[in-house]
Amino acid sequence: MGTKNCPETPRQKMINMMYLVLTALLALNVASEVLESFRIVDASLTQTINNVNRKNDQIYGAFDAAYMQNPTKVKEWKDKADEVRKQSSEIIVKIKDLKELLVLESGGIPLKTADPDFVLGSEDPIVVNSKGDTIAIKKEDDLNKPSEIMIRQKKAEDLKNSINSYRDFLIGYIDEQDPLRETISKQLDTSDPKAKLAEGGEKKSWETLHFENKPLIAVITLLSKMQIDIQNAETNVISALYSRIDAASFKFNRLGARILAKSTYVFEGDQFEAEIFLAAEDTTQQPEIFVNNAKLNMRDGKGIYTTTATKVGTFKWGGLIKYKNPEGNVNSYPFEGEYQVGRPNVTISPTKMNVFYLGIANPIKVSVPGIASENLVVTGTNLRIEKNGEDYFVYPSKVDMLGKNTSITVTAKIDGESRSMGSPATFRVKEVPDPIATIGGKNGGPLRKEELIAEDGIFAELKDFDFDLKFRITQFDVSLSGAGGYVNLYKSTSNKFTAEQKAQFNKLSPGSLIYIDNIMAKGDDGLNARPLAPISFKIR
To answer: SS3 breakdown of the chain: % helix, strand, coil, rounded to 5?
Structure first.
């Protein structure tokens, strides 16, 4: 009799349990690397938020100074700028309150109410609420609470409506012919992503694209990115309002240089681009703008500076603006800024567990922050991949228990070019585990005669398996102990008890033994029928 027919020993059970624990630890290690990437990005975005805040405060300070010198000329523009500040503050508070709610609902710890022995590490992730209180993030990988709050409680829909109202409010302050209207619209775009309906693509909303089934730290990072978009839009509008003040009415040494970047966070290999200009512009003359002692080309009074991001990190840059004031003297205005370069990062999430199974469709989700799903190309080794709406099905070719030959690679189409989104992700491939044979849900042991007669046959059950995979019994043998110790054998070529087998069951008396072996089962995975472990019962 083969090893499959032998009962599992306590030692083997312990080995199996240790293997499951090791598998779980491996999955946690992969998850922690992805979460660490989001922590690093969010920390960088928080620094950028502080930098943009300081820049906006400087512009509002320039409004205050100009108003003190000439209230009559400045009041109209200062009132509009103050309203922009008020509306911007309200939506930023809404985002901070959302962060606080998400973190607290996921077990976050407010430092002001934490236990005295609680210690916050220097690299531990945090959020700061609208009151300035710090909250430690404890469950960065929480997938349930963000989806519950943002999607099912419709907080994402409320945020989308607030962003749309704020965008329309800002655009109302910009002239219809001004290209800044299009810039603001793109910065605060909340339109639903396009789906390729010809290919059966599923239509997704802006809300589900950004917030459904995302880990907590990814949602916090995305909300930080939205803060930056809002504050950059605020910078654009108040700078435009300030430029409408008649600069000749003021001393030019109170004016400062302004920098508008398309983005302060770019992928390695991409280009960083920024516009540098004076807040109060005289359309009758062009300033001269220098970066690293090199004179920039001008476009509508703005110097266009571009540089290629060759490595990861934060980089400072600056230069000088030379401008002739109404008295004919040339004044110089120094400026400085910074930008961040990050390495492309991809998330590949098996929706069941961190392993693929042979012969079935293994669903996975693939996402890259900032890249639409239709611009992703997913390929692999030792497997076939089919797109299913926004997600994918993976069909492995052969068993790969160590995960040495099975991998998934993701590239993205960015600005017409194909870019690799990080190193290939490796996976293990296993066979679907064997089901167990049961009668009336029992796998052996004592069985009442009435229970046995009431059943039509035996069934195959696949316990503790995440996929909805069915097996059916194709044959089995029943052995019954008779008088004098003789054993009689009765065969079935399906999962049903034959008439002969049922007739024998009616003759059984308490203490009789039933032994069922030679059990074969075939599954939905399309593979050959497999033998199952025998089962035995004692009639009581």
So the answer is: 35, 30, 35
3-state secondary structure of 489: strand
Query: Model-level pTM?
Result: 0.43
Range with lowest mean pLDDT among 10-24, 66-80, 315-329: 10-24
Query: Is it the case that residue 332 has pLDDT exceeding 70?
Result: yes
CATH number of the domain at 258-343, out of 2.60.40.10, 3.40.1280.10, 1.10.472.10, 1.10.580.10?
2.60.40.10
E strand spans, 376-484: 376-381, 383-388, 391-396, 407-414, 417-420, 425-426, 429-430, 436-438, 445-447, 459-461, 471-481
Supply 340's token pair. 């961040």
User: Does the structure show a pLDDT above 50 at 15?
Assistant: no
How far out from the chain centre does Cα 188 lie?
Answer: 20
Within 13 Å of residue 286, how many CA atoms lie on the same side as its CB?
11
Q: Could you give the strand order of the β-sheet that contains 298-299, starting from the edge strand earlier in sequence? A: 257-261, 271-278, 302-308, 298-299
Positive or negative: CA dihedral 522, 527, 531, 537 = negative
pLDDT value of position 477: 94
DSSP, collapsed to helix, strand or coil, labels residue 528 as coil
Span 146-182, pLDDT tens digits: 999 999 999 999 999 999 999 999 999 988 888 889 9
Closest CA to 461 of 517, 504, 411, 523: 523
Answer yes or no: CATH 2.30.40.10 is held by domain 345-430.
no
Distance from C-alpha of 459 to C-alpha of 441, rounded to nearest angstrom: 8
In tens, the pLDDT along 85-127 reads 999 999 999 999 998 898 888 888 888 878 877 777 767 788 8
- Rounded CA-CA distance 454/441 in Å is 13
d(CA 455, CA 458): 8
Q: What is the pLDDT of residues 274-318, one digit of tens each?
A: 777 665 655 556 788 999 888 988 876 678 888 887 776 677 888
Per-residue exposure over 374-413, b if at least 16 CB sit within 10 Å of its own CB, e if not: eebebebebbebebeebbbebbbeeebeebeebbbbbbbe
Q: Which residue has the tokens 């490595």?
A: 311
DSSP-assigned beta bridge partners for residue 332:
322
